[in-house]
What we know:
- The chain is α+β, with helices and mostly antiparallel strands.
- Helix content is about 35%, strand content about 20%.
- The chain has seven helices and nine strands.
- Helix 2 packs across helix 3 and helix 2 runs parallel beside helix 6.
- The longest helix is centred in the N-terminal third of the chain and has 25 residues.
- The N terminus is likely disordered.
Amino acid sequence: MSSPVPSSPTSPLQSRSEQRHQYRRQEIYEEPPSQPLPYDSSIVLLQSFNNFFVVAIHNILYYRGIYPQPTFLSARAYNLPVHQNRHPKVCSWIRDAVKAVAAQIAEGRVSRIAVVIHSPLEAEVSSDPTQSASSQTIPPGSVLERWMFDVSRFPAWPGGAKPMRAFEKALAKEHRNEDSRDDEYYFPTAHTVSLPDLDEQLRGALQRMAHAAEKMDALPEGCTFTVAVELRDEALAPIGHPQAWIPSEPNLQPASRSRPEPGADVGGVKTTPIRSVEAGALFFECWLEEGKAKEMLNK
């Protein structure tokens, strides 16, 4: 016998497979289903990841020398010293990129997010002749590093990005005059996750990322970066107007059902685990992949 169709919308942080399992268990054992995660708690957790991702991108740009260090401000996030680029266009680009990623997460399309660092697109004359010569040994725009974030366990928001943003605006309007937020949010598994615990998890991830970045050799001058998403096998390509996304190069395409072999630069030649972040319903992993071009650069 097939499971009955649920009459209420799926919780933002409760996958469809989990919901089917709960309804099947109720049918056989007549146990009451667990309570779904409240929408206001869901939006807090998703916003927490978005804020973390903004800070992480700025930190990566700082520690990997994509922009000169004097262009960064010292700030604090999660009770941790961090770095933020002060150029308005850089800040605007990062905000727009994270917003576009959040929309795809809400649609349930994203498996992984990558902050990709490329070698200089054009050969530049450097004051360091050794660095200039070594940077010319690899093709322009080669993939040097991929800072990866696995968000495959993030469920979709019911209805996609537009309902999520509408709820976010309504919630912000409702709490506009409040000076504080609740200390704890309750999850369907009856576990309690406090915001200080969540901040501690995110702080630990940022610390590990900074430590990994500081240990590596400096990149050549003129490197650039971008943000990419790897889609789930069943996900539709994010096509629309305005077009926020473009297809990645074949060497960066992950394996799929139609393409069993991943691109040449997927996975890299060296992988450094960073940290797993787990706070109630929020779970993701992050790691660093160093590409073949970087290995050639260091020879």
